[in-house]
Amino acid sequence: MTAQPNSTEARDMAYHLHSYTNPRKLEREGPLIIDRGEGIHVFDNSGKRYIEGMAGLWSVAVGFGEKRLVEAARRQMDKLPYYHTFSQKAHGPVVDLAEKLIGMAPVPMSKVYFANSGSEANDSAIKLVWYRSNALGRPEKKKIISRIKGYHGVTALSASLTGLPNNHRSFDLPLANILHTTCPHYRTGAEPGQDELAFSRCCAEELEALILEEGPETIAAFIGEPVMGAGGVIVPPEGYWAAIQDVLRKYDILLIADEVICGFGRTGNMFGSETFGMRPDIMTLSKQLSSSYQPIAALMINDSVYEPIANEADRIGALGHGFTASGHPVAAAVSLENLAIIEEKDLVGNVRRLAPHFLGRLNALERHPLAVEARGIGLIGALELEAADGAAAGATGARVGAILQRNGLICRNIGDSIAFCPPMIITAAEIDEMFDIVEASLGELGQQAAA
């Protein structure tokens, strides 16, 4: 009889298929088992403490171990642990959360639809856009434009929107009617001597050329993150969103703002759309909505989107879309408490106050011999490193990520870029501690390279 694995690490390797992980590498090296969290820190099952420099997955705004969220979940579990929102049913937490989000929206919005992840929210947004086009008698108006290096999820549809090769390879993606335009990365995309405004105009001209080539009557929507997250923390150049929106208005194309990472304070305003002057027709939200204490996502739609959809659903008899856990009462209750904490503790203000210090420490790393570029806004940033001679793309980033983790800092290497997105409760002293570890780890890498 084959012996059964007994340690947590062994059982994980035996039974668990991980997300965004090389399974064979996991088999060779084993997992890091995180046991608990407190504030900006997490602890593994040996008791080692780490600064969580990515707030989990860009998401734990209020930090780990927030007792108010635990208690909000407990109260709701005790009262109504589950109910759905099908067939004209609702419950108090989902009604309260929908009302709260409409009141927070940076532009007029009409309705909120709830899902369980950013992927589902973006998937749902595109389905509703297609439904709207049919309702308006424009069945040909179905194409969606996304961007190279944009990230929008991992369902078949949202992964198609994503402009990253590993989300497409061997999955037979992208699906039809999904197009990709220029990544607005100034350093890599601009011509010599071209300033940011000129580069932004160039991005808008390339978008317009794509629209004209495909036929404006076939393009339904453009989707974009205010700041690109998983594509490497790409901050748009000056004038970018103004130029893009001019083109979209010219050709009657909806704007979907993917606020899954930027929403609820990350860029120094409640929404990234405010930071960059975006006026979306649809907004998708998740992550910091509940600080990821519960799986929940939302999309908000304005009247120009809602009214045709409502008319079409009335004609058919129902809107044939929904998830079992859409607007789950526990997730909604936790989200409401999480938003209350963000407001009461002025965490958006904390981001604004600390951003100069955070970005100052980040930008100082650009002087390191291995650094190519530092970029960021608010409390989100990345340091891009030079690939070592002969090394595969991403190998340097992976080496640095491993050194950082060994030294007590969990970050995320995106290719050869190291991303930072700490909980919004972080202090100036903790920012210093985080970047001190980064500096020391880069020193270790340099010593290894010189050896």
From TrEMBL:
Keywords: Aminotransferase, Transferase. It comes from the Bacteria. Its EC number is 2.6.1.96. It is an enzyme of class 2 (transferase). This is 4-aminobutyrate--pyruvate transaminase. The lineage of its organism: Bacteria, Pseudomonadati, Pseudomonadota, Alphaproteobacteria, Hyphomicrobiales.
